[in-house]
Amino acid sequence: MAKDQEFGKKSVQILISSKKQKTISRSFSIVGKGLHYGRDTRVEVHPAKVDQGIVFQVFQNHIDRIIPAHFNHLHSGNRNSTLTKEGISLSTVEHFLAAAWGADVDNLLVKVEGEELPAGEGSCSLWVENLNRVGYEEQKLNRAYFQIQEILEVSNRGRYLFALPSDFFKVTYFLDYFCGSTFALCVTFSDNEGGFCQIAKARTFAFKDDVQQIIHAGLGKGVRESALILNEKGQSDKKFNIEGEPAYHKIIDLIGDLMLIGHRVVGHFIGIRSGHSMNHQMVKLIARKARLFNE
């Protein structure tokens, strides 16, 4: 990230990268079931103009709404990330946004007929494969990004998420069964080492003790055959796609949620049992520190 231009001195700085913005070379469409609600959704993904960012055009009940992938439209939840605008909601956007991060794409128009993005097998591989299939187009303007300059923290009842200064994007994630845990997973991903296509295979999961609660809430309908179910020892009912798969899926969720800031973030994130709710708090903390809004 040479030749960066710095704007002001803050705990989170907005910088201009030497990298150009990107979009996709041509459009593609898919139809699939949503992760939680299990209903069919049709999605068309189109190239978009420079500086547009990732924007969803959502069609529901003969109404359509333009909803940017931005924290201003975030409806916080514990099990997914939902965007809402003027009575129209789009759920489970995090896997698509993580795939866009991994594909190094900045600008997309995503037309959605439905209330939730297709889940595939509960990872973001579905989106990575399709983005790679159509290819990419470099655009004229350089990319802006956020750089963490001081330690940031959000926490709640033994769950933590930290953001530390770093010259590149990195995530370390620790997962266990929390109370009386008999297993622990700790994995790391960094963009300077590559390997996103591998962690993109990491599927969503739930602990066995939470399954009935999820079912009673009417969630997880689209991935009940593919999602991982873990017992108190961290053992799954299915073979892992990659070693440490549940913890890597938490990293995928975090990457997707961080895209809701509007630009990529450079820093070292450390998650300890953290999830969507804490990711959303961190997104808003970074935005506030970058002076994108005042509370």
Automatic annotation (TrEMBL):
Say which domain of life the source belongs to: Bacteria
Cross-referenced InterPro entries, in alphabetical order?
Ribosomal_Su5_D2-typ_SF, UDP-acyl_GlcNac_deAcase, UDP-acyl_GlcNac_deAcase_C, UDP-acyl_N-AcGlcN_deAcase_N
List the keywords (alphabetical): Hydrolase, Lipid A biosynthesis, Lipid biosynthesis, Lipid metabolism, Metal-binding, Zinc
Cofactors = Zn(2+)
Q: Does the keyword Membrane apply?
A: no
Q: Which pathway is it part of? A: Glycolipid biosynthesis; lipid IV(A) biosynthesis; lipid IV(A) from (3R)-3-hydroxytetradecanoyl-[acyl-carrier-protein] and UDP-N-acetyl-alpha-D-glucosamine: step 2/6
GO biological process entries: lipid A biosynthetic process
State the reactions this protein catalyses.
Answer: a UDP-3-O-[(3R)-3-hydroxyacyl]-N-acetyl-alpha-D-glucosamine + H2O = a UDP-3-O-[(3R)-3-hydroxyacyl]-alpha-D-glucosamine + acetate
Under Gene Ontology molecular function, one entry of this record is: UDP-3-O-acyl-N-acetylglucosamine deacetylase activity
Know the name of this protein? UDP-3-O-acyl-N-acetylglucosamine deacetylase
Q: What is the lineage of its organism?
A: Bacteria, Pseudomonadati, Atribacterota, Atribacteria, Atribacterales
